[in-house]
Design brief:
single chain; alpha/beta; Nucleotidyltransferase, domain 5; six-stranded mixed β-sheet; globular
Length: 316
């Protein structure tokens, strides 16, 4: 079985095709193709409130390209998911309709809760019977999920992200709200807290720290690497640290988000599994096809607007 996940983020758009290797307790995927295109929709949306015509035109070309790749790889099932930039854009839904009419691709504009739910699917196998605070920092939003005793008990999405902070469109009130949420929900009675970080920026920080896969990175180390990156010019980050240009300018703002949340939660270390939204989408697609059952659509933001929603399995 070949499956494809397309993550339309605020900083970049990721496309991945994987084949399913194992149907055992832990689903294994073999990556066949991965394309990351730096179309920063968040720059448009967080500064002007909508996606510009130039970006929309480029976006449609990219969707056509991805559709061709789906056909060439003979993918069995796929899903396109858009996050904060498109869901906040004045013309995000209009652009999605145009893509459907002109290209034949359905783009699911998902809310923060569903985004977190899909990512949680991907990190579940990395968590044990302890207390974890999952921090997923994207270009336009940060999703926080609190796990106690192996169960998720709290979740919240905040309009704070690397591109939004870079463009100075983050709200001090939202920062205060996020701090209050962390301090009031991560209680001392839950014991020591380990952070779990997902997103391209924490993965790059982990790589720069030269940590062995599966080993946690201390908060002290995160701060150390952040200071090192901050001391480099943009050119040095690109040529000496081997960063993409659209990573080089957002990695410091993203680092600040991880650091602040960890400090508020008194988390001394962070695990960095190499997974994200696209991995959660792949898992959903696998479950859907393996069980061959209709999975009910649940997306609270879409329900409130009366739009068709994307699928997530309800717990029985």
């Amino acid at each position: 079985m070949k499956l494809a996940a397309i993550d339309i983020g605020s900083n970049a758009i990721r496309f991945q095709v994987s084949s399913v290797l194992d149907k055992g307790p832990q689903v294994l995927f073999k990556k066949m193709e991965y394309v990351r295109f730096p179309l920063r929709l968040g720059h448009d949306v967080f500064t002007s409130g909508k996606i510009t015509k130039a970006s929309a035109d480029k976006f449609k070309k990219l969707m056509k390209t991805y559709k061709l790749l789906l056909e060439l790889y003979e993918v069995d099932d796929y899903m396109f998911c858009a996050t904060s930039a498109m869901r906040e854009s004045e013309n995000g839904e209009e652009l999605a309709r145009e893509v459907l009419d002109e290209i034949g691709i359905t783009i699911h504009i998902i809310d923060g809760h569903l985004e977190a739910e899909l990512i949680n699917r991907a990190i579940a196998s990395y968590l044990f019977d302890k207390t974890y605070l999952h921090i997923d920092v994207g270009g336009g939003s940060t999703e926080l999920n609190l796990y106690v005793g192996g169960k998720k008990i709290k979740t919240r999405s905040f309009k704070i992200g690397s591109v939004r902070v870079l463009e100075h469109n983050d709200s001090p009130l939202m920062w205060e709200d996020m701090e209050q949420w962390v301090r009031s929900n991560v209680k001392k009675g839950y014991g020591s807290v380990t952070a779990v970080g997902t997103g391209g920026n924490i993965s790059k920080l982990y790589e720069l720290a030269s940590r062995k896969a599966g080993k946690p990175m201390s908060l002290k180390k995160v701060k150390e690497i952040k200071r090192k990156v901050e001391s480099f010019t943009m050119d040095q980050r690109i040529y000496e640290m081997q960063m993409n240009p659209d990573r080089a300018d957002v990695i410091v703002p993203a680092s600040d988000i991880y650091i602040k949340v960890m400090e508020w939660a008194n988390a001394k270390s962070i695990l960095v599994p190499e997974v994200g939204l696209k991995d959660g989408i792949l898992l959903y697609l696998f479950e859907k096809n393996a069980n061959q059952k209709k999975i009910e659509f649940v997306n609270t933001a879409d329900q409130s607007r009366g739009r068709k929603t994307m699928p997530v399995r309800k717990k029985k």
